[in-house]
Amino acid sequence: MQIEVTQDVFPLAQVFTISRGSRTEAQVLTVRVSDGVHRGWGECVPYARYGETLESVAAEIAGLPADLDRAALADLLPAGAARNAVDCALWDLEAKRAGRRVWELAGLPAPGPEITAYTLSLDTPEAMRAQAAANAHRPLLKIKLGTPDDMPRLEAVRAGAPAARIIVDANEGWSADVYADLAPHLVRLGVDLVEQPLPAGQDEALIGMARPVPVCADESCHDRASLAGLAGKYDVVNIKLDKTGGLTEALALRAAALAGGYGVMVGCMVGSSLAMAPAVLVAQGAAVTDLDGPLLLAEDRDNALTYDDRGVHPPTAALWG
């Protein structure tokens, strides 16, 4: 097995800001695996929040043995960006070898489009109202918050998009007191869901706290091993392939989360259509789909995913799987 890792940069359509900082481009790693006849590929976005860099993730992948197969991958790499790109590349390779789509190999029904959230970057209330108004035609907006002064932003977005469904992502930026103060207003303003209001290491405070709007674990949930620590704190889990370490674990986490009574959200880092493609399979029937990464880019890969009023469509074979 030959493994090739390259770094690709995709400029963003505009500056993207969350509570932890801003960016103007998406830096990703593209992994290609080849058996000499067929080649598969996958993409990951190393994330500093989890101690990952482009260099560290590339080094993890470079250390893999030549006799690589997907069944052994979970024992060779931990959950995270490196395993994600390799796992998805191996799925793509298996599909090409078999001349079948990935969902057939995985025993899944043929996928369809899923309505996806569109993310509004953290900004001043006035700027966020303008963002909301410009995207008020979209059925589901996700707003980045995570500061002690978020109430005016929330009010501004609702004023700018009065008919849209809204979900809120605090990116670990609130304290327990700030969340408790905001929670009744989330209900008043018709918010459907709030993601990760408290830091992952401080979310014990959610136990016993009123959750009038469903609370979703993002940074607190990586793979199936995370589920045991979520009881009493969260109602929904956000499945991201860069956290689970690929499609294989993402599908297993979805099944385990549903069996445990959790709702499922499928999210993404800011990446290209190649990164979103396998996640579309996980998102089938999810309570919330948040796979808008390519919509935030100034340019995407060839054979990009289709986004229309029905949502994000499954990938063509020319892209992945």
Q: Poorly predicted ranges (pLDDT <50, ≥5 residues)?
A: none
**Rough outline:** globular
Assign a percent range to the helix content.
25-40%
Report the end-to-end length measured between terminal Cα atoms: 18 Å
Order of helices and strands: EEEHHHHEHEHEHEEEHHEHEEE
Whole-number radius of gyration? 19 Å
* Total beta strands: 13
Question: How large a portion of the residues is in β-strands, by DSSP E?
Answer: 15-25%
Largest beta-sheet details: 8 strands, parallel
Based on secondary structure, the structural category is alpha/beta
> Mean pLDDT score, rounded?
96
The number of helical segments is 10
Q: Please list the strands of the largest sheet in the order they lie side by side.
A: 4-5-6-7-8-9-10-11
Q: What are the SSEs and their pairings?
A:
Layout: E1 2-18, E2 21-34, E3 39-44, H1 54-62, H2 70-76, H3 81-98, H4 102-105, E4 118-120, H5 125-134, E5 140-144, H6 151-160, E6 165-169, H7 176-188, E7 191-195, E8 215-217, E9 236-239, H8 241-244, H9 247-259, E10 263-266, H10 273-282, E11 288-289, E12 307-308, E13 311-312
Parallel strand pairs: 4-5, 5-6, 6-7, 7-8, 8-9, 9-10, 10-11
Antiparallel strand pairs: 1-2, 2-3, 12-13
